[in-house]
Amino acid sequence: MKILIVDDFSTMRRIIKNLLRDLGFTNTAEADDGTTALPMLKSGSFDFLVTDWNMPGMSGIDLLRAVRADDRLKHLPVLMVTAEAKRDQIIEAAQAGVNGYVVKPFTAQVLKEKIEKIFERVNG
Amino acid sequence: MTQADQSLAEFEATLRAHAPQLIESLQQGRFDEATQMFNELNQARNHGLYQEVGKLTRELHNAIVKLEMDTCATGGDPSPITDATDRLSYVVEMTEKAANRTMDLVEESAPLVNFVSYEAQSLTADWQRFMRRDMNAEQFRDLVKRIDHFLQRSMNDGSQLSQNLSEIMLAQDFQDLTGQVIKRVTRLITELESNLLNLVLMAGQVDRVAGIQHDREAMRLEQETKKQEKQPSNGEGPQMHADIREDVVSGQDDVDDLLSSLGF
Which residues form a coiled coil (chain A) (predicted)? Predict the structure, then answer.
């Protein structure tokens, strides 16, 4: 299982990488923006995308839309991990096809639950 | 009486003074004389206006100097905004360093703790066997060696762990420095706001002198619509008042409730 972690703050990427490793996911890669993430996704055979919303080049929501619009990527499970907490935004992300939404600050437990839930649905 | 009233009064006085001459010049067909007089009358009328404009531009220049945006005036020093930006960059840098340092120490400490746990578990199994007298002499000697090694290791690792925890504590020192910097930036911003407010007041005076009325409410609405059209899904960053705002969720449970209520 290859996971791409996208966030413009390196400390957050590190935290998520560590949490994923604790959950047994050791094959991870990182990108600091939607613009660098998209080409990686297109050529990289990733199984899961974890992304922030606010990023200077291409935001997480735009990345999500680009993924859903791409024939080869449209079924990629996407988890948003973000500080964005407005109801409208959560709804917008859900309508754009996000598989899970975690608000910051979050706990390891929450992250674990959301990931497991996503893979239950994907495999079920 | 207001500046405007005063100007009007002055103009009326000048008009009264020149009126007889003006009438005579016109009646006599001495148009160049009449033109000259009209010119003087005009200047008298504008005199008050020029004075007000002069006063206004002087105040405007003062406000600009106060804003310290004019680098010629400050001798090339960074403007308050540049200063504030630099300081905030410093905050980002410091907090990133502290976070990484803390995480480094945690990553170093985890294996130490894991080893103690793991080895204790493994030794327990053998210790139980010993307790049940299910162990021969050689196995017992072996167990003794392992326990000895384990105790040694625990002591050393315990000491290292202690040190790491201390350093993690120290790594939080950024808060003091970043706190000071942020307070300073807050002060800069408050000053800036007050100076900008001054400019706004002056803009009001310019309107008054020029006799123009601007419909601020209409302009504001126009700006709002433009903003909405451009960036509907612009992020707002972490919310400060999630507990009182209706349009913001208060935590992960809220998010989950919202999504499941919509069938997601």
Answer: none
